[in-house]
Every structure is written in C-alpha cells, then in structure tokens.
Amino acid sequence: MIMAPQGVDGDTVRLGPWFAKARTKHRDSRLPKVHARLVAALFDGGWTTEGASPAAAAYAHAHPD
Asked: pLDDT tens track of the chain, all 65 residues?
C-alpha cells in the first residue's frame, strides 16, 4: 500500500507555495532554464506575474463547449 504524504488527500495539492518559490528563483536567475520552460508550459503567457492564468483555463475560455 502506498501512503500519501501527510497533508495530501489525493485530490488537493497546494502548489501555490511551490510556484511562489519558483517565481522568486526565476526572478533571481537561480531557476534552471529547463524548470522555467516546464512551468511556463503550464501557464498562458507570463507565469511570473501575480495574475498568471493557467493554460487550461485560457484554453477553456477560448474553446467553450
């Protein structure tokens, strides 16, 4: 049996703090470029801005059912 880390219920993972750290490292030129490209692929446009929009949300907005 695989146990989930404490504080993770299998449905919700709090990525906000991780993205905040990645954004800070990126601004300080300490985030590896491969990591920056990976994170940028998850967002529509500039992921380092405070109002960054996830790419899935931008896609859903542009392609409503």
From this structure: 455 555 555 566 677 888 888 888 988 999 999 988 888 888 776 777 777 777 775 555 566 66
d(CA 2, CA 4): 7
Locate tokens 């919700």: which residue?
Answer: 12
Q: Which of 7, 11, 27 is nearest to 19 (CA)?
A: 27
pTM score of the predicted model: 0.53
> What gap in Å lies between CA 49 and CA 25, rounded to an integer?
13
Residue type, 1: M
Strand partners, 58: none
Torsion angle (degrees, nearest 10) of CA 16, 21, 22, 26: 140
